[in-house]
Each structure stands twice: as C-alpha cells, then as structure tokens.
Amino acid sequence: MDYRKICQNYLKGLNPRTLKIIERRFGLRKGKRETLEVIGQTLGLTRERVRQIEAEGLEEIKPKIKKDEKIFQRFNNAFISFGGVKKEDDLLNFLGEGKYQNQVFFLLVNGGSFKRVLEDDKFYTFWTAGKEFEKKAKETVKLVINNFKKEKTPFSLLDLAKKQNQEKKITASYIGISKEIQKNLEGKYGLKNWLEINPKGIKDKAYLVLKRQEKPLHFRDIASLIEKLPFENRKAVHTATVHNELIKDDRFVLVGRGLYALADWGYMPGVVKDVIKNILKESKRSLTKGQIFEKVQEQRFVKENTIFLNLQDKNLFARDEKGRYNIKEA
Fold first, then answer.
1. Phi, psi at residue 178, to the nearest 5°?
2. In whole angstroms, what is the distance from residue 306 CA to residue 212 CA?
3. Cα dihedral: 283, 287, 289, 293 (round 10)
4. What pTM did the predictor assign?
5. How far is Cα 134 from Cα 166, in angstroms, rounded to an integer?
6. pLDDT tens across 31-61, in order?
7. In a domain, 24, yes or no
8. Do 154 and 52 share a structural domain?
9. How many domains does the chain have?
10. Which end of the chain is more exposed for a tag (fewer CB within 10 A), N or C?
11. Distance between CA atoms of residues 85 and 29, nearest Å
C-alpha cells in the first residue's frame, strides 16, 4: 500500500499553514519529525500556537482516517500475528515496508484503537492492541528473565517459545520490548549484561572462545577464533594483545607455554612451583615424584623435567628418606 498517497489524501482541504505543520510534525514529506519549537521558530509562531494549529488540523481529518476500515483491519491482523504487542521501531518498519514508517506512525496515532506505551527503564516504546495483550507480554518477559537467571545460559527463540507454549513470532514480539533481554549475533537470547550476549573487549571475547571450545588454547588460536566470531565492527585481533590482556585477568590461567585455560575449570593460579606447593598442601601428606607429576599434569601442560627441576628448590620442598616430598617447614 502506498501510505504516502493515502496520507496526502487525508490532508487535502487543510489550509497551507496547517498542512505544513502536520507534515513537518509527522515527517510526512521530508522524512524527519520536527518538534513544536523548531517549527515555531521557522514560522515565527510560539510553541503553544503551533500545538493548537496541529490539534485543530488533526481534529478535522481524524474522522476521515478512522473510517478507513481496510487500513486498520490490515494493522489489526498484523497485531494479532504478533500477539497484540510490538516494539515501535519494529512495528513501523514492518507495516511501513521499510519506507513508510512515518506515514504508518501518523495513521496509528490518529486512527484505530491501538495504544502507544512510552519507553521506561525496563521497556522500549511499544504499541499494543489492548491492555490484556500488554499484560501478557510483560508477564512473558518476567518469566523469561527469571528463567535466564535460573538457567544462566542463552536460549534459542525456539526453546524460549516452547517454554512459554507460544508461537515463535509472538515470543519474539514480547521479549523484543524488553531492555533486559538481548539477542547475540548468533541468534541466541539472554540477559544484556551477559558476556555471551554482549561481550566487551578482548578479554570477554577470549573468555567466550574458551568457554565454547571447552579446552585450553594457545593465545594465537584464541586470537584467531575471536576474529571468526560474528561480532559487529570486526577489527584485527593482535596475538600479542590477547596474551597481554589474558595474563592480567584472574579469569584466565596460563597452563603451559602460551596455553590459557579458564580458572572456572579448576586450574590453580601461579607458576609450576605454586602448583606443586598447593598440591602438597591439599594432600596433607608426603607425595612421590610420580604422584606429584601426575597431579601437576592435571593443572599444567609442562614437561616432566620441568616439574622435577622445581622440586629441587630446597627452600620450598623437603625430601624424606623414602624419596617423598613435602613442603619444607619454616
């Protein structure tokens, strides 16, 4: 439908000044909505006078707009398919077919029985076909957020829809009005402050890479995988930068030459000596070389000789007559 022509037909008969004000207020001709103050300055009128002229003009044409059942039946069908609720930007883009957003906004505001709900701390501006739909949408958002907090993992739209026993399209419309729920570039939904959904900087992206790979990786491989992830505004990832960032972050543990793991996986922090010391402390008994080697290998990707060389530090470790090692007493 050519909403531009439709709106022009409704505006026929208005005096030139009123016509110009309404067109500028709704961006019907140049595509940009203008404030009362800006219009008043260019026309030499007060803000209040511009508002009065606009209101008088709209009162004159509203009866003609409301009679157009064909348009509002189309709008109503769209609302029903979305579950009666849709974020404003998405609704205008859909109904306006990507080019008539301002005209559709003009029609929604001045005709039909649809309600515009203004943005607040939790929700974007959205439109609804009725109070019951608004209530259902907000209940769905609350349930989805609680589920995210409980499961602590992103979900696909299909999984979210199944949990709510809804159509995918309706679930997408409902959670689309929430400022707390966000979709990542892989199409999964979660809370906006999750790094899986909205990673910030190299360290978060490296964490995401390791979490997905589920195994320690060399910092060069981490850099390569970061570049392959579908982040917006991709930039070249320098391997040296990755190494420098990870070594300063407690979430990562250097477990071998250039190999990093996540501390969440149970890897001990520190160098090989620190690992040996922690192993002996936790064992609460003396251990053989073989036992120490086996336990260190669970924490570090190092050669056997490296471990044994560290055991030679007589300031830290003591060896008993049976050849077993323990922490040297102070």
1. -85, 135
2. 30
3. -20
4. 0.75
5. 15
6. 889 999 999 999 999 999 999 999 999 999 9
7. yes
8. no
9. 4
10. C
11. 28
